[in-house]
C-alpha cells in the first residue's frame, strides 16, 4: 500500500495515497468535501470526496454505503464513474473515507444555481441525458433503500 500523506487543500489533514495531488476544493455538501486532484498513476484529473465522521449518524452512514454500492455497479457515459475507494490506514478505527470519482465540468446543483436562461435545445439535451442515465441505472439491479411499512 502506498504511503499516506497529509495533503489536504486546507490544513494538510487529507490522508490519501501519494499518487494523488490534491488541488482546490470544488464542492461541499452534507456528506463531505470534494477536491479536484491529479492521479499520477493514471494520468488524469479526478474528484476526491472526503467523508468525515462516517459513523456519527447511522442513516447518513447507510446512505454513503448505498451511494458507493450503486456507483460501483454503474458504467455509463451519463453517470459519474467511481474510480477508487482509498483504503483506510487502520480498518479498526477509521472514521473517514475518500472516494475517487470522475471529474465533471459541472454538476446539476451548480447548473441550477447559476443565473442563466437555457434555450430549448439546451433543456432538451439536458433532460435527454438525465433520462438516459436514469434509464441505464434502472436497468440494473441496484441496492435499494428499504421501504417503510
TrEMBL record:
Span of domain Protein kinase: 20-149
UniProt: ATP binding residues: 49
Keywords: ATP-binding, Nucleotide-binding
SMART domains for this protein: S_TKc (SM00220)
Classification via InterPro entries: Kinase-like_dom_sf, MAPK, Prot_kinase_dom, Protein_kinase_ATP_BS
Record keyword Ubl conjugation present: no
Signal peptide: none
One protein family per Pfam: Pkinase
PANTHER family: MITOGEN-ACTIVATED PROTEIN KINASE
Name of the protein: Protein kinase domain-containing protein
Species of provenance: Prorocentrum cordatum
